[in-house]
Write a structure and sequence with these properties.
Helix 3 crosses helix 5 and helix 9 packs across helix 10. The chain is built from ten helices and eleven strands. The strands form four sheets. It has a four-stranded mixed beta sheet, with helices on one face. With 191 residues, the protein is an alpha+beta fold.
Amino acid sequence: MIPDRIIDLDRVSVRPEVFNTYFACDLGKCKGACCTLESPYGAPLNPEEVEEIEKALPLVLSNNHLSQFNKNEIKKNGFWEEKQGDLFTRSINNKDCVFVYYEGDVAKCAIERAYFDGKIKYRKPISCHLFPIRISHFGGDIVRYEKFSQCVPALSNGENTKTTIFDFCKDSLIRLYGLNWYTKLKELISK
């Protein structure tokens, strides 16, 4: 049974749309839009992630995938900034995250590329890994789905493959809350 209400588990509230919305990225159609959303802000970061990226940065910059322009931008201005107490990756021209590189016309993450190449152990910011999930804080975490028009192909692809946001974001949810939490939540929604 798919829940039609918020599920609470260990001070984390998960909104029902996470369980009942089909979603599976279709990079061939969206072209990696989540990495290039128009905004003066890049990906949300937490202070620990800034430290992790700082440690990984030399190997990410040595990667041939990141453009020289982006490398120069990072060297000159850094990769993160603070806005009203929140941390974000830098945005280039209010669009691309500073870590974007392109494979053909598809935007991808240079941090994640270094991770998959086995050069670093840090995958990418959790906010990126969780996408399209966003976490709000109100007496605990609130896990919610954030809609973007650029993700319409992911909705169709998810429906075709019968993949929900909860299933699509399994790895990132386990990374954030642990396997035990994910397994318990899966059991709760299966009842």
